[in-house]
Amino acid sequence: LHVTLKFLGEIAEDKVPSANEALRRVPAGLPIPLKFQSLGFFPNERRPRVLWIGMSAPPSLTNLARAIDESLAQIGVAREEREFSPHLTLARGKDGRLTAALREAIAKHASSLFGEMSPTSFHLIESKLKSTGAEYTTLESFSGKPKT
User: Given 5, 28, 39, 87, which residue is catalytic?
Assistant: First the structure.
């Protein structure tokens, strides 16, 4: 599981070193205390495509996402247009339908606290979609101590 701070989309392999350099300059203010609580759906409960766990986090998490976005924009990566919405994706569905049992289980835990953590780093992760699902590879890790 991971929290996406910035989705880069398709980037050329020769741009990865520039992305690493841009991310090394980001002052992260880590660790950031995170609480994982509440369940929800994207786009909504009537057409559930994604089941997620919501997060309660201080403004410093949004500030980190914004700093990453700004730093990567300097090397030509498109800025994020949507508001940052921190979450953990638990499941994806194709048909947008829920069984009654699953709907009941989700409703029962809709406001539960699922855990807490304080990450001390963030990562540049490559994802490749395969027939078996997404495969993730960490390309670089960052401590959030900016390097100039």
Answer: 87
Q: Which domains does the chain have, with CATH numbers?
A: 13-142 (3.90.1140.10)
Indicate if 109 belongs to the active site: no
Is 123 marked active-site? no
The pTM of this model reads 0.86
Sign of the four-CA dihedral 108, 92, 89, 134: positive
Catalytic site residue from 2, 92, 109, 147 = 2
The position carrying tokens 């980190």 is 64
- Token representation of residue 21: 């350099």
Q: Which one, of 42, 58, 44, 41, lies nearest residue 106 by Cα?
A: 41
DSSP string for residues in 69-86: HHHHHTTTPPPP-SPP--
**Mean pLDDT, range 56-60, rounded to an integer:** 92
Residue of 77, 71, 73, 80 whose CA lies nearest to 25: 71
